[in-house]
Every structure is written in structure tokens, then in C-alpha cells.
Amino acid sequence: MLQRRDFLLAVTLATAAVATPVLGQTTTPAARQAGAGAQSTSAIPDFSGIWAHPMLGFEQPLSGPGPVRNMSRQPNGTSNNNKLVGDYNNPILKPAAAEVVRKRGEVSLLGLAFADPDNQCVYQPVPYVLWNFEIQILPQRDKVTILYNHDHEFRQVRLNQSHPAQVTPSWLGDSVGHYEGDTLVVDTVGIRTGLYSTIDRLGTPYTQALHVVERYRFLDYEAAKEAQERGWKEWANSAAYPVDPDYKGKGLQLEFTVEDDGVFTMPWSAIVTYRRALRKEWDEHICAENVEHYPGHKYYVETDAKVPSADKPDF
Fold this sequence. Notes:
Strand 5 and strand 6 (183-189) form a beta hairpin. This protein is globular. It has one domain. The chain has helices at 7-19, 95-109, 221-232, 302-305; strands at residues 50-52, 134-139, 143-148, 154-159, 174-180, 183-189, 211-219, 251-259, 268-276. It is an alpha+beta fold. The protein has 4 helices and 9 strands. A 9-stranded mixed β-barrel has the order 1-2-3-4-5-6-7-8-9.
């Protein structure tokens, strides 16, 4: 079985974040990422708490090129979450990438699930990991930690620093950030690729040239509500992760831009809108390999998933 990070690590991170006072950012950061906007001395926005994004995929931008959409639809017009068939005709895709999306969609049309980071219980790269239904953002003195509810993935964003000259690829990449007024800007490069690499739930590939820029900011209640309702026209509302219907405060919106010359013909953007989660406790969700995911179609062999045991008892 693949090694997964200990749940206690996420708890430790959360405790550390609460114990560390949030400090204002200096006007002259020592090594801010090249090209980053002007640093503000205003109060840092408090993004803490549990935020819910109750839909499986990304929201389309209001204008400009957006992510690949699902061609398989429900009778009401929303994306069919049980058949993830990416639109390989999307002009953002180069021919080789379009072919990958097409082949993965063919698997889904058979009623199966093509292998991806979620169903394989492996680390989820950026921006794939942004599908998570719930997140927490923990501000600290020199970094921001972002927790994801599924299998307790987490990211650490170093504040006011540059990427190293040579980045060692990792699944979540190297993330640096800074505040532009009321907006947290996160710049990520060095995202590792592998056998099950995909940028979204529709199987869109990427290369190690992938560059993702995220912008987190508060959104007025009505605007956040409208954005989620617009998103539900594309991706069905995931009722298992509801927003708090009584909370009328601000929402949180993430706008991110993706560039990868190895896969895409142009940069594109997407949106993830959060509102306060009805759930008030950070539950434990553990991913486990499923040997018999489908009858006759195995992701693993039995020897990979069996609990280790001795040939002879030791007592």
C-alpha cells in the first residue's frame, strides 16, 4: 500500500498556525517573486475557517479561454460525474494532449474510470488538487498552509520569496506567495509528472513546464452565491459537502491561470468559489486502494493490497 501522510501532521500544522500570530507583510520583501505586484502594508485578510466548494470540477471564467469541459451531460444539462469525457476539441489543447483526453474519455464511456491521482490514492498535483470539496487556509509568519479535506493533502506557500534557481520537481510543486492588498497571490512551478498525471478530473495532461498562478480574495455574499449557482449549472451540487445556509458573510474566490507550452496553445483560467461550510469539524478522510474497483478490471493485484503477514505465527 502506498505510504500516506499521517493525519496528525495536518493537526500539528493547524495548531501551529493558530499559535503563530499573523504579522503584516513588509514593504520590501527580501526576495519577492519576479514580476509580483506591489506588496501592501494593509491588514492581511483572514481566510481561516472551513470553506466548501461543493462541486467536482472547476468553474468556467466569465470571459476568455477556460478549462476542458465534460461532453457527457445529465438530462438537466449538468456534467455527468459518472462519465468524465473531456472535450478534446477545446482549442486550448495541442494535438497530442487532445489525443490523451480523447483516449481517457473512451475509457469513461465504457462505464469505467481511467486512472487518475484520486482513484489511485497518490499525491494530487496543482491544480488537480483544487477539486477538493473543502479547504482551510492557515496564515503563518512566513508562510501560508493550505489544507485539503481529501486524504489530508496540504501545501505550504513560502511568503515573499523566489523560486530556487533549480527546482526539484514534486507533486505539489514549489509555491511562493505574496499579498497584493486583499488578495493572496500564489505562484507554483516544478510540478512533477507521472503515470497518472492529470490537471483536472477530465484527464487533461500536463508537462513539467506547467506554471500555475492562483489569486485568493474575499467575495461579497451575493456574488459568491451567484458564482456557485452558476458553477452548479456545469457541475452538480455535491450535497455531501453543503455550505452553511445561515451564513451571510463573505465568500472566498480563487481565480487561477494555467500555462504549459508543452500541452496548451494558450494560457487559460478557471474559478473555484467557496462559501462557509456547514461542517464545523475537520473530518478524517483516508484514501485506500480498491483492488476490485470494477468486476474484471483491477487497479492493483491482491498482493499489493493485502495486509502484511508472517508465514508462521511468532507465539
